[in-house]
Amino acid sequence: MKCSRMVSRSMGNIKGDDYFSSKIVADLSFIVEHTKDIDICELSHNEVLLDSMMFRLIQISENAKRLSDDYKERRNYIPWIAIYGLRNRIVHDYGSVDLDVIYSTLKDDIPVLLEKLQ
Q: I want to staple 20 with a disulfide (CB 3.0 to 4.6 A). Which of 14, 63, 83, 95 is the partner?
């Protein structure tokens, strides 16, 4: 039987699926809250907001990678591969990331993902 928790010890803390999933939900909630009244023009002209959203997307992927295989298998309706892929595009092609894709992800995909994980 597989262990359903990934455990890492950092200053006495045990971090498992509950920890990483709560971090993902917090980042998703932050994105939804801070983009609810934003259009693509405002996003493209607000460098601090855009950088913040990109950082959150990267963090979501990083925390998703730390979830156990069992956790992800039980939630196979979540597009895990797409989450990792977006992170790679942001990190490796930051200067040429398609803003339309980012905006669509923020406005259309993130709220749905948040609902599925809550």
A: 63
